[in-house]
Amino acid sequence: MKFRYDINALRAIAVVAVIFYHFNVPGFSGGFLGVDTFFVISGYLMSKIILDGFDNNDFSLKEFYFKRVKRIIPALLVVVVFSLLAGTILLFPFELKTLCKTSISSLTFVSNMYYWRNSGYFNPAAKNNHLLHTWSLSVEWQFYMIYPIVLMMVRKVYLSNKRLFKAIIIALTVLSFGTTLLVMEKGNSLGFYSFPTRSWEMLIGCIIVLFEKKFIDTVHLHLRNAICILAYIVLIACVVLFNEKLTWPNAYVGIPIIATFLILICNCNFTLLSNRLIQFIGKISYSLYLWHWPLWVFAAGLAFNKPGHVFVISILTLCFSVVSYRYIESNKKLFYPYKIIACTAFMTLVAALLYVFPVNQYFIDKKIIALANYQASHDEEINEQMKRGSCFLYSKSNEQDFSNTACLTLSDSMENILLIGDSHAAVLSLSLRKKLASQNKNLLQATTSNSGFFLNPTGRDAKLVNYVLQEFIPQNHSKISEIIITKNWLTLENDQLKAKVLELVGYLQRFNIKVRVIGQTKTYAISYPTIAAKEIYLSKDLNNNYAMTESQQANTLLKQLLPSSVYVDVYDVNLTKIKTQAEGYTPYMYDDNHLTVFGADQLIDYAGKNGLF
């Protein structure tokens, strides 16, 4: 196959787009689409290799597999080894165990399925996973393993009836794309991660191979050049203008795919494309892709991910990638398939052993480890705090688990205050109950993790929400002096949030009941106890590195929406975040957004002093 400068240029565009998207560089909000471009390129090259082999009657499945082993695994293996070594030094034992699991899934090329089961690609917490980017390698590897076998099954059709073969490939492409849209409409990240729903992008590459000769022979060079230039402009515009909300999950993702398709089928090698820098970046694009993400995540863990740090991390990525390309990718002495497979099996075993025996547990202070693991070791306390399973229905609860007697018994001698909402309301219940009891007041609680306590609810707990809002409150409003509402307000889009909150508050105020809305608390990209443990371990302030700006935006929106007589702003309350005791540390949150009793006590004290009850 004749070398094509445009393919290397496409690789350069794709990898720069992905890297700068991950590095949060302005102007690259759609940079993740670079992966889609890589998929089309891979589909084109693999189809070219296989179909040329069919034409020449010299295709060898074993040789094809061995070449993929030599091309993909060595550099990946080095990145995994580096990540495990760095993780042993910089991570906590439970984080190292997670890294071991992701390392195993990466080395066995099933990481796409691992991440589908455990996290969404655009989930903030996923951005702290050191090998998240290997999901695309797993998709490609699965394609490399299955695709040649599928083509060999229809080899006779390809050699004897090209028209039928083209129809088969087009049908498979349409089927895969249609499946993707159906899966993604249901909000399932399987459509993003899986090989079947991604294979259409690689099959587009096969379509290019099947039609490129006729296209080049039919379409005049000047027109092809014009189409190609327009396609480059569209592709770059997608990188600049798109974001995850505009693409996955919908058909807009087809636009950059079509642009890549046109660039490849036009086969225009402009002088600019042969520029040394562009070709160099394209040449080392695989190493750049492999190295940039773990370096960025480890740097972020050290609070080294501010805008001013991007240049330094980019240079580090470039240096690691050049060394990787020179001494790993281009080193022929390393390219013995069976040795590569043996080394991969050995490292998989090492990762498994490190998972069972995380060695860093022996040189990190046990109090710090306990803090990082706070939620797992305080589950019973959290159950009691929320009244989980009785006054708070969660994912494992049934509606009949809700106890009217324990949660909604009205007092004739005390003032009754009703707390409604989701888990953010539930975590306040114990602290609020204690505070109200000291004032001779009775707390009623109806909280659920599913429906969010709005009018016209849907979902698992809708029956309970309807009962409380449509029956209990209307029938007992004269005995209820106040209703307190709170939830994780981030679960709603802005317009939806405005409409639902105003509707609920207006509805409740019709009963002449005092209504107070407790605002959005801070939320974090990862569990707060882990952040606090890192701060102590590294002697660095990391709070702002992981704080989610969306929380502040939700708080601002609610402040503008509701009068101060209704809204209780708690976002900027200066809560003590860590309590230090001889036996260990107590954080103010037990995960990335829920207060512990220690944190809830402080918030209720503040809210009480500001007219909450």
Automatic annotation (TrEMBL):
<feature type="transmembrane region" description="Helical">
    <location>
        <begin position="165"/>
        <end position="184"/>
    </location>
</feature>
<feature type="transmembrane region" description="Helical">
    <location>
        <begin position="72"/>
        <end position="94"/>
    </location>
</feature>
<feature type="transmembrane region" description="Helical">
    <location>
        <begin position="223"/>
        <end position="242"/>
    </location>
</feature>
<feature type="transmembrane region" description="Helical">
    <location>
        <begin position="254"/>
        <end position="274"/>
    </location>
</feature>
<dbReference type="InterPro" id="IPR043968">
    <property type="entry name" value="SGNH"/>
</dbReference>
<keyword id="KW-0812">Transmembrane</keyword>
<keyword id="KW-0808">Transferase</keyword>
<dbReference type="GO" id="GO:0016747">
    <property type="term" value="F:acyltransferase activity, transferring groups other than amino-acyl groups"/>
</dbReference>
<feature type="transmembrane region" description="Helical">
    <location>
        <begin position="190"/>
        <end position="211"/>
    </location>
</feature>
<feature type="transmembrane region" description="Helical">
    <location>
        <begin position="340"/>
        <end position="357"/>
    </location>
</feature>
<feature type="domain" description="SGNH">
    <location>
        <begin position="403"/>
        <end position="604"/>
    </location>
</feature>
<dbReference type="Pfam" id="PF19040">
    <property type="entry name" value="SGNH"/>
</dbReference>
<dbReference type="InterPro" id="IPR002656">
    <property type="entry name" value="Acyl_transf_3_dom"/>
</dbReference>
<keyword id="KW-0012">Acyltransferase</keyword>
<dbReference type="GO" id="GO:0009103">
    <property type="term" value="P:lipopolysaccharide biosynthetic process"/>
</dbReference>
<feature type="transmembrane region" description="Helical">
    <location>
        <begin position="141"/>
        <end position="158"/>
    </location>
</feature>
<feature type="transmembrane region" description="Helical">
    <location>
        <begin position="310"/>
        <end position="328"/>
    </location>
</feature>
<protein>
    <submittedName>
        <fullName>Acyltransferase</fullName>
    </submittedName>
</protein>
<keyword id="KW-0472">Membrane</keyword>
<feature type="transmembrane region" description="Helical">
    <location>
        <begin position="7"/>
        <end position="25"/>
    </location>
</feature>
<dbReference type="GO" id="GO:0016020">
    <property type="term" value="C:membrane"/>
</dbReference>
<feature type="transmembrane region" description="Helical">
    <location>
        <begin position="31"/>
        <end position="51"/>
    </location>
</feature>
<dbReference type="InterPro" id="IPR050879">
    <property type="entry name" value="Acyltransferase_3"/>
</dbReference>
<dbReference type="Pfam" id="PF01757">
    <property type="entry name" value="Acyl_transf_3"/>
</dbReference>
<feature type="transmembrane region" description="Helical">
    <location>
        <begin position="286"/>
        <end position="304"/>
    </location>
</feature>
<feature type="domain" description="Acyltransferase 3">
    <location>
        <begin position="5"/>
        <end position="325"/>
    </location>
</feature>
<keyword id="KW-1133">Transmembrane helix</keyword>
